[in-house]
Automatic annotation (TrEMBL):
Pathway: Lipid metabolism; fatty acid beta-oxidation. Pfam families: ECH_1. Belongs to the enoyl-CoA hydratase/isomerase family. The lineage of its organism: Eukaryota, Metazoa, Ecdysozoa, Arthropoda, Hexapoda. Transmembrane segments: none annotated. GO terms for cellular component: mitochondrion. This is Delta(3,5)-Delta(2,4)-dienoyl-CoA isomerase, mitochondrial. Keywords: Fatty acid metabolism, Isomerase, Lipid metabolism. It comes from Lygus hesperus (Western plant bug).
Length: 315
């Protein structure tokens, strides 16, 4: 009896996700509390992340940058999450950069006399912000962004790292950095050309900081659906997310990995990548079957003899 229990426990510890660290992450992600984000689960396996600084027009401060990366890193490992929907509370999606963060950065740099150290601080901060935006792309779960009204600067960096984008009729977009004397450096210049497929349009937007309205955004492929209001957009997006969540998560996540990889590589490299990925899955399945068919029975046998030995020694 004890030997059977030991073998069963060993088998579950290897095979059942609920006994792994990933399973423990899954149980805690939905209950996480953030200062600048609101995280809910409106449908099974569908997580809804809202930018939640409506009084500050959802402007990106240091907390928001940090919490976005933390949130998507957690969701990436959360097996209860299969799709992520991103929207924003309040009257607009985001006004872009919170300039209080720039003031704080200026003060931090001013306190550092050494030029090399100033550069190091600035470089580390840029990489931190880049990682925050890239966390959407690195998350193996499909990410949908729902934009209403303004999506400026950092917001455009965020949504171009997503997989699916919808917006309302009143939405508009702007690569705003050039207007404040900066070159956009956290992802939009790298991702937007791949999203819309027109270097000329991207160059115009980046050089002029002009607004791209909802209709033009749909025509160029930045978004693929328009809605008259935010409520309808969120409702339909959650329905789409629910449909995606009903599919095999292994298939969906494998598809996203292949799409992201193929975007930055040649067709042949993409084909080679998916063959390699399929081979790894096959090897893993063989390993799991080996554990079930060989390792667990072997452990059961050893445990049985061990407990028999204990019993004979004791009695």
């Amino acid at each position: 009896m004890i030997a059977k229990f030991a073998a069963s426990l060993f088998s579950r510890s290897l095979i059942s996700p609920s006994n792994t660290s990933i399973g423990k992450v899954a149980m805690s992600t939905a209950s996480k509390q953030y200062k600048t984000l609101k995280l809910t689960v409106p449908k099974p396996f569908v997580y809804h992340v809202e930018l939640n600084r409506p009084d500050k027009l959802n402007a990106f401060n240091r907390d928001l940058w940090t919490e976005i990366e933390d949130c998507f890193t957690s969701l990436n490992s959360d097996e209860d999450c299969r799709v992520v929907v991103v929207s924003a509370a309040g009257k607009l999606f985001t006004a872009g950069l919170d300039f209080t963060s720039m003031i704080e950065l200026g003060q931090r740099l001013a306190n550092q006399e050494d030029v090399a150290r100033r550069c190091k601080i600035l470089n580390e901060l840029i990489v931190e912000f880049q990682d925050s935006m890239s966390s959407l792309e690195k998350c193996v779960k499909p990410v949908m962004c729902l934009i209403h009204n303004a999506c400026i600067g950092a917001g455009l960096n965020l949504i171009t790292a997503a997989d699916i984008r919808y917006c309302t009729d009143d939405a508009y977009f702007s690569v705003k950095e050039v207007d404040i004397g900066l070159a956009a450096d956290i992802g939009v210049l790298q991702r937007l050309p791949r999203v819309v497929g027109s270097a000329s349009l991207v160059n115009e937007l980046a050089f002029t900081a002009r607004k791209l309205d909802a209709m033009e955004a749909k025509e160029c492929g930045l978004v693929n659906r328009l809605y008259t209001n935010k409520e309808n957009m969120v409702k339909e997006a959650l329905d789409v997310a629910e449909e995606i969540a009903s599919k095999s998560p292994v298939a969906v996540q494998g598809t996203k990995r292949s799409l992201v990889y193929s975007r930055d590589h040649s067709v042949q490299e993409g084909l080679n990548h998916i063959v390699s990925s399929s081979s790894l899955v096959d090897h893993y399945l063989v390993y799991v079957q080996f554990v079930v068919d060989v390792i667990c029975p072997w452990f059961y046998c050893r445990a049985h003899h061990f407990f028999q030995f204990l019993i004979s020694e004791r009695f």
